[in-house]
Amino acid sequence: MRRLFFVSIIALTTISASAQSTTPTQNISTDSTVVFRLFSTSNMYNFIKLNTRNGKMWQVQWGIEDKYRFQTKLSDISLVNIDEEKNGRFFLYPTTNTYNFILLDQIDGRAWQVQWSLEEKNRMVIRIY
Hints:
Elements: H1 2-19, E1 36-40, E2 46-51, E3 57-61, E4 70-75, E5 90-94, E6 100-105, E7 111-115, E8 124-128
Antiparallel strand pairs: 1-2, 2-3, 3-4, 5-6, 6-7, 7-8
C-alpha cells in the first residue's frame, strides 16, 4: 500500500512539473520559401515578425482592445544587400532570457542579439562578433 502511494506521488509530481513548462511553443513552418515568419515570445501577447530575406524585424502585440494592439520596428535596416536577399536566409532562436533571441544569418553565420521590450528604450539589435 505504501509503495503504491509513493508511486502515485511521483507520477503526479512528474505530470505537474511538465504541465508548468513556460517554454513558448513555436509553430515553425518548414517551408523555406516564405518571406515572413512570426516567432512567439514567452509573453503570450507578443511576437517577433521576421523578414527572412533581409533580417528586418518588428515586435507585434495583439490584444482584445485596440490600444493594446500594435506593431513596432525592432530593426528596419536590411542586413544584406538586395542582391543577396534570399527567402529563409535569417532565422530567430529563443534564448532562456524572456526578452532575448539570437538572429542567425544561415548563409554566412553572422549573429545578432535581438531584445524586444514593451519600452522602446529597451529594444535593440546588436551584432555578436
